[in-house]
Structures are given as C-alpha cells and as structure tokens.
Write a structure and sequence with these properties.
mainly alpha; 25 helices; 4 strands; elongated; two-stranded antiparallel ribbon
Length: 557
C-alpha cells in the first residue's frame, strides 16, 4: 500500500484538508500584505518643487505652472514672473530640496516623508533591490531547512524574519538602515508561503488541489492586496501601516500546534514511525477508521520500496539536490523547470508591481488588480481539472503574451491613449499572468520528487528572483521605445509556452517521491500527447453521455 492509498484511507479531502486550506488562506492574506508592503510604502504621488509664491495656490494651479517644463516634478523655480498664472516662470539650475505633494487619499509614504524623490529616488530602489536579494537568500535557506528540519518549522522561522524586517523598518531614516531591514524582510518573501504550498500538495487529493487550493490562494491573496492598499489609506502613514501589517505574521506560529508535519517528507527521511503517527492523527481528525493492517501494509511498502530496515535507516544516504543532475531525464526536467521560473517570475513581478503612471490612482489600480485573482484562481483550477496543467500553462502563456503586447501598443499612443482601454488591458494581463504563474508553478512543484522538493522549489524561486533583476532594465527600454517592455514580455511568455510543452503532464498521476520515481515519471510521453489525452477524454465523455441518454430512453419506455 503506497502513500497515496494510505492517505486516501486516512482522508485526503476531509476535515483536516479543509483546515489546512483555511490556514493557507490566512497565510496568503498576511503574506500578500508583507510582499507588497514594499510597493505601498514607496508610492510616489504627483509632486512639484516648493516655492514661497506657490504657498496659497491650488494643486491644479501648481500643476499648470510646472507643466511647461520638461521635468515638472524636479524643476526648481527662481520666480513665477510677472504673470499671475505663472506662464512666465523662470527655472533655476539648482536642485530642489523641498516639495509639494499631492497625497493620494492623504497617505504619506516613506518616499514623501524622507523626500526620496527626483535625485534621491534611487534610495528606495536600492532598498527594494535588497529586498529581492533577501528573497533569494531566504528562499534558498528556508528551502534547505524545509527539507532538513521539516516544512512546519521552516514556515514559522520564515515568517518571524518577515515580522522582524518589517517592524524594524519603522525605525529607519537612513539608506543604510533601510537597506538592512528590507534585506531581513526579504528573507521571508516567498519562503513564508511556498513551503506551506508544498505541505498542502503533499496532503490533499488531486481534485481538491486543482480547484480548492487555487481558489483559496486567489481569494485570500486578493483580500491581502486590497487590505494592504486600504489599510495604508486608513492609517495614513507608512510607519503605522508597517506596524499593522507585520504583527499578523507572528500568528503564523500557531501552525506548529495545528498542522501535522509532512508524512511524505518523513518517509523520505526514513522516519516511517513518524509518518504513521502523523497519518493516524490525520485519520482521527477526519474521523476515519484505518486498521492496523493497513498501516502495516504501508510500512511494508516503504521498507520494500525505499529499502529501509530498522538497523540501517539511520545509515541511509540522504538524497541531495545535485543528485537530480546525475540522471538524464531528471537533469533535463530540472533545467526546464529553472528556465520556466526564469521566464515567468520576472514577467509576473513586472506586471504585478506596475501600478503607477497609468492615469489612475495606484490604490485603486492595486485593488482592481487584486480583484482579478479570485476569478483567475477559479479558472486556473477548473482548467487544470478539465484540461490538465500542461494545456492550461501553454494556452495562458500565449494569451497573456498577446495581451501584454496589446497593452504596450496602447501605451505607445502617449497622451492620445484611452485610459479605460489601457486599464482594461492591464487588468486582463494581470488576470492572465496570475493563471500562467500559478499553473506553471504547480506543474514544476509536482514534477520535483518529494525527497528534494523543498530544496528544488527553493532553487527554482531563487533563480526566478535573480532573473527579476532584469525587470527594471526591461522597463527602462520604454524610454527608447515605449512598447518595448510589453513586447519583450510577450516574447518571453511565448518562449515559456514552448518550454512547458517539453515537460510531462502531472494531472491524475502519482507524484514522484524518490529520485528513481522522478527519473521514470512521464517516460515516453511526447510533446503533444496531452492533446491526444484530451481528445480521448472528450470521446469517453461523449460515449458515457450517449449511454446515459440511451438508458434514460429505455427507462422511459
């Protein structure tokens, strides 16, 4: 009796799994607020250089006066001139050291309080870069810990780092201190969620994994984003915002008392007794009765299949991540997984974080972007269940690439562009990239064997974050040719779709636990075999439907 069979007897779509989903939902809520807090505290509203003659002027008048200059936000005035409307204003060559801000909903961000705008705008970007450096280090570090000390403990430690970094940022006022605290905060980014994601995949049924997991992720991640934007508006200050958004990270400590360690992981660590104990607790929570004979059969399977004996369990060599590179098929799959993350993660970060300069308040656009996540999660889960991971990933990468390119063409129109059309295309692109990112991440996670899944996913995310450093340079190309960034994103998505075609399908298949199972997984499967499977599935469904109709006709007679 293998793991999937014993888990089905203990319950893989019951009370314990729903409790896991509920906790994962809470985690997504606080994690999304933590991840995008960097954006919220760095919002830069419209601003203009301060001048005494502008003291009693309205924002509209100030904007009209500065509109005549090439760099209205950073131009210092000598005088407004003789004209009361300021049309004869004279610019100074000196740098501006004081600004007038048009605060969005009254929120005072870190950039406005510390005047990190114009020539000092790079300081916030340095801190943001250190946040991503921390993400790379933390993802790798906690991924290694997740495979060594367990998923649960690693999740708790990651969220403690997130709290420490965010709460410490409140007391910073210099670039050095800000960079250090953002690095510490970044250690938690991604690691504080994907380890719980792995734990869920290892405990829930494929059907619940398809729809339930993606719906919970979409709904609660969306609530976290909306909550982050409007919590900032409510408190009105970036320091208070960080205090309020960081404290819930400490509540993740409750996972230690509520969630069972991964039984699959314990099997790969040769701790069969520990795995059986966790499965017994799962069965008890689910109110399922599992006989001792079933657990005995499971033990026998583990001892036989993984070659574990009571005397040599402690001497069994631990599977290493580099062992994936020793066999041809696992090596090929590993490089394809890394390539997908290199393509998708930078595209996701570029699209998700681009909420300024589109002709609409960043708080409103932030909320509208968040509202795309629940339907995206549902559509992703439904399509994965009906068409599979591979077909969903390929189709939505292609579609998102087309939408991103279309948005770029609208941006190229400049001031003649239609704001509503641009916002609509931006939201559709956000919808598409959420599906593409979610399904490709799940496909890659399921392909990596359990024994190295934590480390494997960690390395993939680190490589993705490293590639995200190209995002600012991709955006910078827009200064030379405005549609360039979105055209590049479109081409990247098309490349990602091709790479996904080279991977095997994982829908309704037993996921690999050992490296040997990973090497055999999907063997003999062609690039387009998933299309034949869809056709067979459609033919089988039509046949079943015809049989049911025939039976109904016969019964009516």
């Amino acid at each position: 009796m293998d793991f999937d069979e014993i888990l089905a007897k203990c319950g893989n779509s019951h009370r314990y799994q729903y409790m896991l989903l509920a906790f994962y939902g809470f985690l997504m809520l606080v994690v999304s607020m933590h991840y995008f807090s960097q954006n919220v505290i760095s919002f830069v509203p419209d601003h203009w250089c301060y001048h005494e003659q502008l003291r009693n002027r309205s924002i509209t008048e100030i904007e009209a006066i500065y509109k005549q200059f090439d760099k209205p936000s950073c131009t210092r005035l000598v005088t407004l001139g003789d004209d009361s409307n300021g049309t004869n204003a004279i610019a100074s060559v000196e740098r501006c050291d004081r600004w007038i801000y048009n605060y969005e909903f009254g929120f005072r961000s870190m950039n406005t309080e510390l005047n990190w705008v114009c020539d000092a705008a790079y300081k916030a970007r340095v801190g943001q870069s250190l946040f991503f450096v921390g993400s790379m280090c933390g993802t790798l570090m906690f991924g290694l810990l997740g495979d060594r000390i367990g998923r649960v403990k690693a999740v708790i430690l990651a969220n403690w780092c997130g709290f420490l970094g965010d709460f410490s940022t409140i007391f910073t006022g210099s670039l050095t201190a800000f960079s250090v605290t953002r690095f510490v905060s970044g250690l938690a980014a991604d690691a504080n969620s994907y380890l719980m994601y792995i734990l869920l995949i290892e405990y829930v049924s494929p059907s619940l994994r398809n729809v339930g997991l993606n719906m919970v992720m979409g709904i609660f991640y969306s609530l976290g984003l909306i909550g982050a934007a409007w919590l900032a508006v409510l408190v009105g200050n970036w320091r208070l915002f960080l205090a309020c958004s960081s404290l819930p990270l400490l509540l993740v400590t409750l996972v230690y008392f509520l969630v069972q360690e991964s039984a699959q992981w314990l099997v790969t660590r040769n701790d069969i007794d520990g795995a059986v104990d966790r499965l017994r607790r799962v069965a008890k929570i689910n109110r399922r009765v599992v006989s001792d004979e079933d657990f005995k059969a499971f033990r026998s399977y583990c001892h036989c299949h993984y070659r574990i004996t009571a005397t040599t369990a402690a001497e069994q060599p631990e599977s290493k991540l580099l062992d994936m590179l020793k066999t041809p098929r696992m090596r090929s799959s590993a490089f394809k997984v890394l390539l997908i993350f290199i393509i998708v993660v930078p595209c996701y970060n570029t699209i998700a974080r681009n909420v300024e300069g589109l002709g609409i308040s960043p708080f409103i656009l932030f909320s509208l972007n968040a509202l795309m996540l629940p339907p995206a999660g549902y559509v992703q889960g439904y399509l994965q269940d009906v068409a599979g991971r591979k077909a969903t990933a390929v189709s939505w990468m292609i579609l998102t690439g087309i939408l991103a390119t279309a948005a770029g063409l609208v941006i190229s129109l400049g001031q003649n562009r239609n704001v509503y059309l641009l916002v609509g295309l931006t939201l559709l692109t956000r919808f598409g990239v959420s599906i593409a990112d979610g399904v490709s991440s799940q496909l890659c996670t399921e392909l990596i064997p359990t024994c190295v899944r934590g480390r494997g996913v960690a390395v993939a995310h680190v490589v993705g974050f490293a590639a995200s450093f190209l995002s600012p340079y991709i955006l910078h190309l827009g200064t030379y040719y405005k549609p360039a960034p979105t055209i590049i994103i479109g081409l990247l998505f098309l490349s990602g779709a091709y790479v996904c075609l080279l991977l095997p399908e994982t829908r309704n298949k037993k996921l690999p636990m050992s490296l040997a199972e990973g090497e055999e997984f999907g063997k003999g499967e062609g690039m387009f075999d998933f299309l034949h499977q869809l056709r067979k599935q459609g033919s089988a469904e039509k046949k079943l439907e015809a049989e049911l109709k025939t039976k109904e006709v016969q019964e009516s007679k």
